[in-house]
Amino acid sequence: MFRTIICLFFILVIRANAFAQNWTDAEFNKANTAANADYLTNEEKNIVLYMNLIRLDGEKFYYTFLEDYINNYNAKVRKYRNYNDLKIARNNSYYLSLLKHVTGVKNLSMFYPDEKLTALSRNHALDLSRNNLDTHQSSNGDKFSKRLAKEFPNKAMSENIDFGYSNSLDIVCHLLLDCGVPSLGHRFNLLDQKYKLNTVGVSIQPHPSYTWCAVIDYVSQPTFYTNNH
User: Fold this and answer.
1) Three-state SS letters, 69-124
2) Is the pLDDT of residue 76 over 90?
3) Statement: the pTM of the whole predicted model exceeds 0.85
4) Which segments within the chain are labelled E, that is strand?
5) CA torsion sign, 118 to 168 to 32 to 45?
């Protein structure tokens, strides 16, 4: 009960901030597909919420939540001598290309959490933590596709991993911007339409080198492709 109250409070805080930017209660309700997933933490639930808000209205997310993330990030790194190198400037090529990619993204299908897939995400995040790794490959050499195929055979699948953040908005926006990743693989997973990814597993765990890591696994039911980023 206490955990549910905390989760509801956090969602209400998100709503209070976003109402000024014209996000509606109906949009939050539609995006909040993980609300009753008691196997997820509050931050993990809100990763699903933010990913779905992007898919509901990508351009509005760009000018609201992403803008908040960039402003907060730039404020945090202002104390460093190389601030000009660290900050996300408005002429940043990844920031500009993202606007092109999210313009017109509206009312895409939602991601829905899955307990079995989340267990796979959690196992990989814990493996990364125990062995101080930063890869899609497991410590035993298995590729992510082999890990997921054990429970989800013959399905389209992909995986995002984020390092350094434990906050849901930070994780999602970091992946969405995908700065320094020329393939933009993380971004395209979030905006996916090609592979019909619709089922997600999410886990945030401590990491010895990066403080935190978040593993997000995606599966499409019931198409027959494999996609690796």
Assistant:
1) HHHHHHHHHCCCCCHHHHCCCCCCHHHHHHHHHHCCCECCCCCEECHHHHHHHHHH
2) yes
3) yes
4) 112-113, 157-163, 199-207, 211-219
5) positive
